[in-house]
């Protein structure tokens, strides 16, 4: 069962604030650790910070504007009819689970998720495949609405249109609900950040949380010596592997000599001249200090360093 929250007359700010009150479909893949563009730490930050992030970039704009087109192509391809919902759905059994669906299928206990994908990601849709974080998004919607089928349709920009059908899976839905329940209760509601996962997104979140330091403050570093020892081992391995990488590249350069390209059945290697132009900021600062001062932009960030005691 679920409650329906009307969204047709909501402002973008109101809608974004509502999304903070639960885990949505686009959050599900990240909570599961399957979204290459997000992470559990990012979802935790989005739900717990007071800021409301207005997403306004070209990818978001195109995805929104092309949603109608994807829905139309789906109807043409399947003969099914779809309609807008204009509601946010919230599970009554698990109130932390919310769903803002793209379309509902008329006359069928089903919904539709509309996607646009870059041609660079076309391989992720080949042979009936679906990116895993989108799979979890669809099952999240099924879990909230109780619908037994969810379609997902995608336009691969400049290439093709595809659609897939997902059906209810008791084990998968139960596992997803348990995972989201654990995340919400033990992290979001408890105010406990999930463990770092090594992603760039996680680093961005940590930098957002702890933008500045208390000058001169210090704490005792306890329980990390083994982890730091492992870090040193990793750095040594990286250095060795990078040296091996450079050696391979140098062998190929020696083989190519003054040829720009080298081609095999598996690889195409290029060794081309590239012209770059850099601004001599040191010279400008010395010879034109007023101009340098007018255009210099200062940024502040925290530098993380580790040294042996």
Task: Give a quick precis of the structure.
This protein has helices spanning 12-19, 25-31, 40-48, 58-65, 67-78, 132-145, 170-188, 200-209, 225-256, 281-287, 289-295; strands at residues 2-6, 82-83, 87-91, 98-99, 103-105, 110-117, 149-156, 160-167, 261-263, 268-270.
What does this structure look like?
The protein has helices at residues 12-19, 25-31, 40-48, 58-65, 67-78, 132-145, 170-188, 200-209, 225-256, 281-287, 289-295; strands at 2-6, 82-83, 87-91, 98-99, 103-105, 110-117, 149-156, 160-167, 261-263, 268-270. The chain is built from eleven helices and ten strands. α6 packs across α7 and α10 (281-287) crosses α11 (289-295). The N and C termini lie far apart (59 Å). Helices cover 43% and strands 15% of the residues. The protein folds into two domains: 2-209, Lambda Exonuclease, Chain A (Alpha-Beta Complex), CATH 3.90.320.10; 225-295, no CATH class. The model has no long low-confidence stretch (mean pLDDT 93). With 309 residues, the chain is an alpha+beta fold. The longest helix has 32 residues, at 225-256. The strands form three sheets. A five-stranded mixed β-sheet has the order 2-5-6-7-8, with helices on both faces. Strands 1-3-4 form a three-stranded antiparallel β-sheet, covered by helices on one side. A two-stranded antiparallel ribbon has the order 9-10.
Number of domains: 2
> How many β strands by DSSP?
10
CATH architecture of the largest domain: Alpha-Beta Complex
Shape: globular
Mean pLDDT: 93
Our measurement of the CA-to-CA distance between the termini, rounded to an integer number of angstroms, reads 59 Å
Helical percent range?
A: 40-55%
Main sheet properties: 5 strands, mixed
Strand content: 15-25%
Give the CATH topology of the largest domain. Lambda Exonuclease, Chain A
Category from helices, strands and their pairing: alpha+beta
């Amino acid at each position: 069962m679920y409650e329906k929250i009307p969204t047709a007359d909501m402002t973008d700010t109101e809608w974004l604030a509502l999304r903070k009150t639960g885990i949505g479909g686009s959050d599900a893949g990240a909570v599961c650790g399957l979204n290459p563009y997000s992470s559990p730490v990012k979802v935790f930050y989005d739900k717990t910070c007071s800021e409301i992030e207005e997403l306004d970039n070209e990818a978001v704009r195109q995805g929104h504007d092309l949603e109608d087109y994807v829905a139309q192509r789906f109807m043409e391809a399947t003969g099914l009819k779809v309609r807008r919902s204009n509601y946010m759905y919230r599970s009554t059994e698990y109130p932390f689970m919310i769903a803002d669906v793209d379309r509902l299928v008329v006359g069928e206990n089903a919904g539709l998720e509309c996607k646009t994908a870059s041609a660079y990601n076309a391989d992720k849709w080949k042979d009936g495949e679906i990116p895993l974080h989108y799979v979890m998004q669809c099952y999240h919607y099924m879990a909230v609405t109780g619908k037994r089928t969810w379609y997902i349709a995608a336009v691969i920009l400049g290439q093709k249109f595809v659609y897939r059908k997902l059906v209810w899976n008791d084990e998968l839905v139960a596992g997803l609900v348990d995972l989201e329940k654990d995340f919400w209760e033990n992290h979001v509601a408890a105010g406990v950040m999930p463990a770092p996962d090594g992603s760039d997104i996680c680093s961005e979140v940590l930098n957002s949380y702890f933008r500045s330091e208390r000058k001169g403050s210090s704490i005792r570093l306890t329980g990390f010596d083994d982890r730091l020892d492992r870090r040193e081992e990793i750095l040594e391995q990286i250095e060795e592997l990078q040296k091996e990488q450079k050696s391979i590249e140098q062998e190929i350069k020696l083989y190519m000599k003054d040829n720009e390209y080298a081609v095999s059945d598996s690889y195409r290697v290029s060794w081309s001249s590239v012209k770059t132009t850099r601004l001599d900021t040191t010279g400008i600062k010395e010879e034109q200090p007023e101009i340098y001062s007018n255009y210099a932009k200062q940024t502040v960030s925290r530098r993380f360093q580790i040294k042996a005691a």
